[in-house]
Design goal:
- By secondary structure, the protein is an alpha+beta fold.
- It has 3 domains: about 1-45, no CATH class; about 60-90 and about 135-175, GMP Synthetase, Chain A, domain 3, CATH 3.30.300; about 95-130, no CATH class.
- It contains 5 helices and 9 strands, in the order ααααββββββββαβ.
- It has helices spanning about 1-20, 25-40, 50-55, 60-75, 150-165; strands at about 80-90, 95, 100-105, 110-115, 120, 125-130, 130-135, 135-145, 170-175.
- The strands form 4 sheets. A 3-stranded mixed β-sheet has the order 1-8-9, covered by helices on one side. The chain has a two-stranded antiparallel ribbon with strand order 2-7.
- The longest helix has 21 residues, at about 1-20.
- The chain is flat, with a radius of gyration of 30 Å.
- About 10% of the residues are buried.
Length: about 180
């Protein structure tokens, strides 16, 4: 009986090895997918507070954005010192998940009820479920820089600001900084 099982195991191994060699790429991708799925389950309980803190950190900060853009523009050859003012069309907003239920009262009457979807944490607090965060949209920009006397610098600054802010070049004004030589 043992010899029969050994023979069957050897025959199965003889068939599987060529298949494994032939389809090794597929097996590697399949194994990677299984490992990713398995590792996702070992993250433990997700802390709602840390998710909320991450969400708060993702909020748009206009002053920090302007400063970061100034730093990047100042690194462009010929620009020199930079001052920047951005105007917003609308501020950012968060879109929250909503549960909506339709109830029928009679033959032709229907009403809708909706409430905000929330997640409860372990300390009995509730956090609304965010579907997406909309970033603010820009109305225009004024850039003051030392190198604005050069047309190539003005063009480079205009293109950079319009690309980063998602506004047209006609909404970006580049002017020479006073006291610049």
């Amino acid at each position: 009986m043992k010899e029969q099982w050994k023979a069957r195991l050897a025959a199965a191994r003889g068939m599987l090895v060529p298949l494994a060699v032939k389809y090794r790429a597929v097996l590697i991708v399949l194994l990677a997918g299984v490992l990713l799925l398995a590792s996702a389950g070992h993250g433990g309980d997700t802390d709602v507070r840390s998710t909320a803190q991450t969400q708060d950190a993702a909020d748009f900060d206009l002053v920090a954005f302007e400063q970061q853009l100034c730093d990047r523009l100042a690194a462009v050859d010929g620009v020199g010192r930079v001052e920047l003012m951005l105007s917003l069309e609308q501020t950012g907003e968060a879109v929250y998940a909503v549960n909506t239920r339709q109830t029928t009262g009679g033959a032709n009457s229907a009403s809708f009820e909706s409430d905000l979807t929330v997640v409860s944490d372990s300390s009995y607090g509730e956090t609304p479920v965010t579907v997406k965060n909309l970033l603010p949209t820009f109305r225009g920009a004024v850039v003051l820089c030392d190198g604005a006397g050069d047309a190539n610098v003005r063009l480079a600054v205009t293109q950079a600001v319009s690309t980063v802010c998602g506004i047209g070049a006609d909404k970006v004004t580049v002017l020479k900084l006073s006291g610049a030589s």
